[in-house]
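Feature request disguised as a bug report, sorry. It would help if multi-protein outputs had a clear separator. Right now it looks like this:
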Amino acid sequence: MARNHWIPPWAVLFAQLAHGFSWGLIFWAAWSGSAANALTGFAWIHTVALAWITTAALAILLFALPNFIDVEWRGQTIARIALVFFAAGTAVLIAGFLGPAKLIAFGGCVVFAALLVYLATAFATVAAGLRGERIPRAVARAFGITLAFLLFTALLGLGLAFMLAGKPVGAWISATPPAHAALGTFGWISMLIFGVSMRTLRPITGDGTRMRWMHIAVGSFALAGIPLLAAGVASHVSWLSWIGGGLFAAGAFGYVLDVLDIVRRAVVPHRPPQAFVVASVLWLLCALVLGAGVLAGRPWEDAYIFVLLAGWAGQMVNAHMYHIGVRLIATVYRGEDDETRPQEILDARLSWFSFVSMQIAIVLVAVSLLNGSAGLAARGAVFGIGAWIAIVANMFGASLRARVLPRTIRL
């Protein structure tokens, strides 16, 4: 096997373990009665946002970013090493939320330092892309902005980690959790999905957007709205929050329409990833409704952040796991030039079971967070764990089939 695969397999494995842990954490919180504990909630949020989604995203970017902007990644070996420390720091941070508070500051420092190193190489790669042709330049600028949102999110997160660990910080830090959340979920995760999915949906569906102007509009509205939303929620200026949220929602609606149009015209016969994509964008719409309720003063914060992360972002990650993740498995065992299609080594029954069970899990937990039913949350977590086990079993089965099936090389 190659020393450096196009995506580090260990990072995808770590992300999947974090995914499973997130559902186990919900079950434990509901069963033990600690669901209302703020630190338990922080542990779940960072398990999903950092350990699962961001680790997977940073690993995929090692391959996607240079291919999107037609340059080589500057200092890729350093970036891969930094990603190891990022994952380790994330694990320590989560342990701090669930145990000794002093680990929160230590884990936060490791995460921030590792991210700085990774981002230094990423920004150098983006800078090289800015010297290319018109389209790669535009893509490089978009990635640069998205990575900048990640950096600002990490800066605020480091300050909050010190605050939670009891370290002396400025009083203004206590007002920044909503801005930290807005920059992380919208500026980093959502903007990344908006950009990357416009390329990755083509292999998943076999077709691309018919509305390139829509992609520009989506990015423009979101980019204008996110800083206003973050500033508004941090300063408790309601009208600013509504303007920022409205601008982001306008961009999100355009993205949803574009994605649904792409999936409607899909010609690739492998349907489970496409189903996860559709579920993802529908959960995004649900999250926007819940978010509007939060801005209007409704006590929907927990359900909103859950649907935003587990529904919108999480289901999009699952969609890519069933395509990019399976392609990675195939190339690990069959060589970098192998072109085995995911459906050739996956079990369709497990794929569909994981899809249905995952959507049931999200519905049950979201409803439980709205009405305060711990029992319903526990049942939802059981469905989530079942869906996760099906995904892992499917990937394990795919790895076994990848070893024994004849190699598929299309010239």
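(second protein starts here, but nothing in the output says so)
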Amino acid sequence: MIRKVFMLIIVIFLFIYISWNFYLKAVRYDPLKDLGIKTAGTNETGIINVTSYKPGWSGDIYEKNLFSPFRSYAEPRPVLPSDIPLPPPRKPELALKGIVLNQFGEYVAYLEIDKSKPMPMRKGDKIEGVELFDISERKVMIKWNAETINLSLDKIKTISNPRTTR
């Protein structure tokens, strides 16, 4: 029982100290007291003249509208100097996977660009800057930028008659 009373007394004294400290430092706080305002004295009307302070606002703040709620932060755009030449674009890795004849009698080439899934392309199709402008039974002509690339199926073995047994 004595411990409870002792702890209660400590809590009460702590509350009184915190309240007294709050009153002195927050309620009775005078921000101009520490700055040492020099007053010129009182005039006939009883008003104190403060001569050492002037308004903190300048004409620039009003002219440029610096603290307007309608202003927002704008990310600065990166500036590319025009003197530095841009590196040439990287040539894509091209692989011809096959050529088929569709039901309309047109050749369709299956091209793999940068090791992606092979895409069917007909004459005149353009994918990722690669344009197919000529196709035959075993060869394909591709235009990339101003460069012409020839791809063929000559290295691929074909089965002449798959139904024969060995």
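Even a blank line would do. Unrelated, but nice: The chain is about 20% helix and 25% strand.
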